[in-house]
Design brief:
One of its GO terms (cellular component) is extracellular region. With about 130 residues, this protein is mostly beta strands. About 0% of the residues lie in helices and about 55% in strands. Strands 2, 3, 4, 5, 6 and 10 form a 6-stranded antiparallel β-sheet that branches. A 5-stranded antiparallel β-sheet has the order 9-8-7-1-11, with no helix packed on it.
């Protein structure tokens, strides 16, 4: 599990957290999971980036974040998907398109201030349906 704690800047339009297959700035690495909160569209988007191309977006019309407020995002990484909870509420699931073993880095960008990023070993959680 990956836990990201921080706060949303009042001027935030979007922010993203990417589970990347490398960290070189160029060429852009593949992205196994692109989590993008879009205040300007009141939605969350999940996607992957492979061989220089974005794949099909998965959108959810929900905005669990509030500008100017703190948050905690939990990414539960299972064999089949990334499950996302914000402030204790399950909000998004993204089925793997790229094998997990390829993920080497996490990138955070956009209108948030990150207080911490923590990693925890395998867990079973009621929050995510009790399965890992």
């Amino acid at each position: 599990m990956v836990l990201v704690s921080g706060s949303v800047q009042r001027s935030c339009k979007r922010f993203q957290i990417d589970f990347q297959c490398g960290s070189a700035p160029s060429p852009r690495p593949d992205v196994a999971f692109h989590f993008n909160a879009r205040f300007d569209e009141s939605c969350m988007v999940g996607n992957s980036f492979e061989r220089g191309n974005w794949q099909h977006e998965q959108r959810k019309q929900d905005m669990p974040f509030r500008k100017g407020h703190p948050f905690e995002i939990r990414f539960l990484v299972t064999n089949g998907s990334f499950k996302v909870a914000v402030d204790g509420r399950h909000v998004f699931e993204f089925i793997h398109r790229i094998p997990l073993y390829r993920v080497e880095a996490i990138s955070v960008s956009g209108g948030i201030e990150v207080a911490s990023i923590n990693f925890q070993g395998p867990v079973r959680s009621r929050l995510f349906g009790g399965r890992s």
